[in-house]
Amino acid sequence: MPKNNTIALITGANKGLGLETARQLGLKGIKILLGSRSKKRGIQALELLKHDGIDAEIIILDVNKQNTINAAVSKVKHKFKKLDILINNAGISIQREIPSKTRMSELRKTMDTNFFGVFAVTNAFLPLLRKSKAGRIVNVSSGLGSLFKLSDPNWVGAKSRSTAYSISKVALNALTVLFAKELKDTQIKINSINPGSTATSLNQFRGIKKPVESVKIIVYYATLPKDGPTGGFFSELGKEPW
After folding, report:
1. Is the model's pLDDT at 2 over the cut of 50?
2. Within 13 Å and on the Cβ side, how many CA atoms surround 145?
């Protein structure tokens, strides 16, 4: 078992924000379940974590395939009996067009991963999170998921053409609020986090920040104290506008 008996599952953890989140949580003595669609990429990421002395193992998990989600739940339930931290990090951004030029297939594919995938994973692991003394769920969102910011022509991201991605993150934020309402009388806290513009493969490494900086806010909300908030949207600057 991990040093502090805390178990964390991170989806899309074989690279980028997910891998760095795994590293920083792992350095806190938390057992890392490294969610990866690809076993090969998962093993490569696992070697990097183990090089830093982190207690981690691979969980084959494709958020678009319910059978892999079910198998992951069964594995965690059998081995650990609970889950303390779920970080819904897996996401895609495959389109750069205005709404009228966005293909339905691109919108559906983006929603399948960024929204429906989070919905499926969260629901599947909720029984195990309920068994934790301090269950924490972090949904990795974006400034592009803020209707307030999207409607501000002076906002730095106002010219973004990531229509499908923005819609998926707006929906994700709504899901965070609704889950928080459902779980308000439990020990589980759920929040949406905007890590900021980060250089990862998601944006062809055009982001401003590095993952090592951006994931600090994710790690903070993944390890919130008992009196921490739930149902919010936050960045390193504090509360984000919906």
Report:
1. no
2. 29
Looking at residue 174, its amino acid is A
Closest CA to 208 of 196, 218, 216: 196
In the chain, what percentage of residues exceed pLDDT 70? Answer: 93
Task: Examine the residue annotation and report whether 220 is marked as an active-site residue of this protein.
Answer: no
Name the catalytic one among 31, 101, 109, 169: 169
Q: Which residues pair with 192 in a beta bridge?
A: 139, 233
| CATH number for 193 | 3.40.50.720
- pLDDT per residue as tens digits for the range 39-77: 999 999 999 999 999 999 999 999 999 999 999 999 999
How many domains would you assign to the chain? Answer: 1
Can you tell me the distance from the alpha carbon of 56 to that of 45, in angstroms, rounded to the nearest whole number? 10
CB atoms within 10 A of CB 221: 23
Kindly state the greatest CA–CA separation across the chain. 52
Give the orientation angle of helix 16-26 with respect to helix 39-51, to 10 degrees. Answer: 40
**Quick check: is 189 catalytic?**
no
For the entire predicted model, the pTM comes to: 0.93
Instruction: Tell me which residue range forms the domain holding 175.
Output: 7-239
- Active-site residue (options: 31, 65, 75, 165): 165
Dihedral class, residue 192 (left if φ above 0, else alpha if ψ from -120 to 50, else beta):
beta
Q: Would 119 be classed as within a structural domain? A: yes
